[in-house]
Every structure is written in structure tokens, then in C-alpha cells.
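Appendix B, record 7
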Amino acid sequence: MSDDQGISERRPFRSRITARTRAEAIELYNSGLSALDVAEQLGVGKSTVLKILKHEGVTVRPRGKRIT
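C-alpha cells (predicted):
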């Protein structure tokens, strides 16, 4: 597809997750926030947070459980 057809071939902007963001995600999750809450706070997707946690070997809590 070319631009003369009115369709752009540009990819959407994707930022890289930094080591600092990874560390923050783990810290926030371990402090008791849900993966969704962590994602909203960091401005990333919930699946991204879950992938970070899994990659770093963090045990993911069952859905709906929070540490109080």
C-alpha cells in the first residue's frame, strides 16, 4: 500500500519499557496494587505489567485478591 492510496504505512508509536519502569511496576505490585492499578499509574497496558511481572519471576496473585 502506498501513500497515493491515502493509506499510511507508518507504525503506531511504541515506547520502550525502561528498567526504571520495570522496577516501579514490580514495587507497586508488591505494595499491594492490582496489575490494572499499576498499569494505570505507569501509563502502560495491564498485559504489559503482567508480562513484566512474569519475566521478572514475580508471583502473580489470583485475580481479585489484594494484599491489605
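Remarks on this record: Residues 19-30 form the longest helix (12 residues). The mean pLDDT is 84.
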